[in-house]
C-alpha cells in the first residue's frame, strides 16, 4: 500500500510540474507586431542579428514597416533609378534596403550610389570618367591608368599641362541633411613590382608653386571657395571641396564643383584623379572606407 501511495504521489507531482512548465511564457509568445515595433528602434545590423533568435523574431524582422523606417526619404527615387519600377513592385522593403546597400552603378558605370548599411544614409561617388577634365582627350596631357586601388578600376593621370581644371556636375535627389564633397587625389603614379606597391613621382611638379582652388555651387544658391596645396606624394589624399545642405525632401538639387590650378606661368604634372565623393558631412572622417 505504501508503495502504491508513493507511486501515485510521484505521478501527481510530475504532472503538476509539467503543467507549471507549460504555462510559462517565452520569447516565442511575444506578438509579432510588438516585436516589430521594438525592432523599429534598432539599427539594421542589430535587426538582422535578432532575426536569428526564433521564427517569431525572423518574421517580425521582415515586416515592411520596419524596413521602410530605415530607408532614406528618397528611397523611391533611388529604387526607380537603380532597380527599375517593375522590380521594386515585387520586392519587400527589406529586399530594397539590402539591394540599395550594394554599390549600384549607373550612367555607363561612371557613377555609384549606395546606402550606408548601419544608418541608411546616401553615399554618392563619381569616377574620373564622369568628370569634365580639360584636355582629357589629348594623350600628350592625360591618360587613363587601370588600377585595383580605385573602386572604378581606373584613374585619370596628368603627365604635364599648363591649365588644369576638373569639373563635376550632377543633379540628384538627396535626403534632407548636410553633405560634403571631396576629391580623392594622389601625386604620383602607383604600380606593383614584385608584389609590392611602388609610386613613381618623377613627373610630380608644379603643385608647390600655387595652391589649387576648389569651388562648389548649388542650384539653390549655396556657394563655397577654398584653396590648398596638394601634398603627400605617393598617398591617396581626400581634399574637401565644400559642404551643402538639403532642406527640401524629394526635390532634385543641381550641384557643380571643381578643382583648378590655371596659373599658366608654370606647368603641372604627376597628378592622379580617382573620384569625387558626396557623403553625409559626419562621414568625412571615414572616407577611406568609400
Structure description:
- There is one protein chain.
- With 290 residues, this protein is α+β, with helices and mostly antiparallel strands.
- The chain has 2 domains: 1-100, Monooxygenase (Up-down Bundle), CATH 1.20.1280; 122-289, Galactose-binding domain-like (Jelly Rolls).
- Helices cover 23% and strands 34% of the residues.
- It is built from 8 helices and 15 strands.
- The chain has helices spanning 2-22, 32-39, 44-50, 55-60, 64-68, 75-82, 85-88, 93-100, and strands spanning 104-106, 111-115, 122-127, 132-133, 142-146, 154-158, 164-172, 177-187, 189-193, 196-200, 212-218, 223-228, 236-246, 253-261, 271-280.
- The strands form 3 sheets. Strands 1, 2, 3, 5, 6, 8, 13 and 15 form an 8-stranded antiparallel beta sheet that branches.
- Strand 5 (142-146) and strand 6 form a beta hairpin.
- It is elongated.
- The relative contact order is 0.14.
- The model is unreliable at 1-21 (pLDDT under 50).
